[in-house]
Structure formats: structure tokens, C-alpha cells
Amino acid sequence: MDLSHFFIDKESKSPLYIQVEEIISELLRQVPYSLGEKLPNELEISQELHVSRNTVRKAMYALINKNLIVRKKNRGTFKNIDNNRIKTTLNNWYSFNEDMKSQNRNFKLFEHDISICKPDLNIYEKLHMQPNRKIIRLLRIKGYLEPELYVESFFHPDLNLTLEDLKDGDIVQLYQFLEEKLKVKIVFSQEEISASMPSNEIKNHLAVEDDKTPILIRKMLIHDEDGVKIAYSIGYYLSNRFVFNLNISR
Asked: Residue 198 and residue 236: Cα distance in Å, rounded?
């Protein structure tokens, strides 16, 4: 084990255990630990990083509580391979962020970009619009430790949304925000989920380095309670990171 290329900033406002947690999280993404190799023990990590063993223990407990690592009796500490995929339900639009919180995965926003564009003809058709009208496109890239989800959302121009309305990168629940902003009630979505190999653009955004990792594509056409089309979103999910659950009643 060589942690010499990692640095603990003891002058930083970030607590030492958080910095250690981030370093261990980085180790979990690297071979051999990403493949299930036993992690260094607390004493080894504390000596390598020049921090107390209690600091390392606190970081380890934080990662255990997030289900990212597991301790196996008489064997050591390992990456939690069984918890490698993120499970989320498709029951409602608000479930995703709540699911992430319940799994102790607070997703970060890696990119937030808004622009005016002329989208593909398919999107005009989905929104029942005349071609060539300019509409707002919102791009967001999110993930826990690294980018895992790329979402493009296109908003019907009759909503009178502006770029200023969507510039805030702190918007967590987009559709709840739209309801409050536009004074509408979103009640229905038509969805389509498929699998495909990623384009070069998606590979770059989601840091896909091989040609064997497919993506899940989730397309959503959102309506309000009067049947008015609000938005069309396309989400690109890493298939080796997400599992969609469906609850279906008779």
C-alpha cells in the first residue's frame, strides 16, 4: 500500500476524518480494492497519512454507515461489492432523491448548464410543438463519488420559463420546483426505458473508459393535471451502477 500521493491538509476547514473518508473512497475505485481486495487496516492508514487511529476509525464508520465498505470477522475490511448498484424506484418523480438519502448517498451536482436550443425533431414531436421554435435545455450531471447520471431536460416554451429561473444549481427536486414556480400540478409521465451503448459524448461526461459498459436510457414526458405537456427529459444512467425497481399492483 502506498498512500504517499494522498495529502491530508491539517489547516483545512474540512475535518480530518472527512479527508480520510475521501481518500479511502478513492481507494475503493482503484484496483485491487475495487475488485474486492482487503483494505489496509486502521493502523496502517493512520501511519501512512500521519493522523490518529481514532480519525481513521471515524472515517471507516462513516463509510460503513453508507454501505460502501463491510467488515468481515477475522478477515478485514472490504469494498461492499453487494452494494455496488444504486437501487431506486420508479413510483414517483420525488422518489429518487429520497432513495439516495435513505441509502446515505447524497448526490453531488458535477455539472449544471442551461441554454436555448433547437432540439431534435423527435423532441418537438413529443412536446407537440412546431419545429424550429427555440426552447430551454437544462443539462445536469450528478453522482455520489463520481458522475453516474446525465440528464437533459427540455421545457415547453409556452411555460414562460426563463434561463434566470433555472440558473440555480441548488435545485434538487426539479419537478417540485416547477410546480411551485409555475403554479401547476404535475400528475403524470409517459416513460420509456431502454439499454444502449453510450455515445462518445455520454462516455466523456460519465467517464466511461471501456466499450463494454452499456447505459440505461430513461425518457420521460411530463404532463400537468390538465394534460398539458410540461417537459421532456432524457436520463442516461450507468447500467453497472443503477437498478430500477417497479412496484406493480393488480
From this structure: 9
Distance, CA of 36 to CA of 82 (rounded, Å) = 10
CATH 1.10.10.10 for domain 16-83, yes or no, is yes
Bridge partner residues of 140 (DSSP)? 112, 151
Whether the link from the prior residue into 214 is cis, omega within 30° of 0, is no
The domain limits of the chain are 16-83, 86-245
C-alpha cell belonging to residue 67: 454501505
What the block records as the C-alpha cell of 114 is: 442551461
pLDDT in tens, 193-209: 999 999 999 988 888 87
**HEC string of 93-135?**
CCHHHHHHHHCCCCCEEEEEEEEEECCCHHHHHHCCCCCCCCE
pTM: 0.64
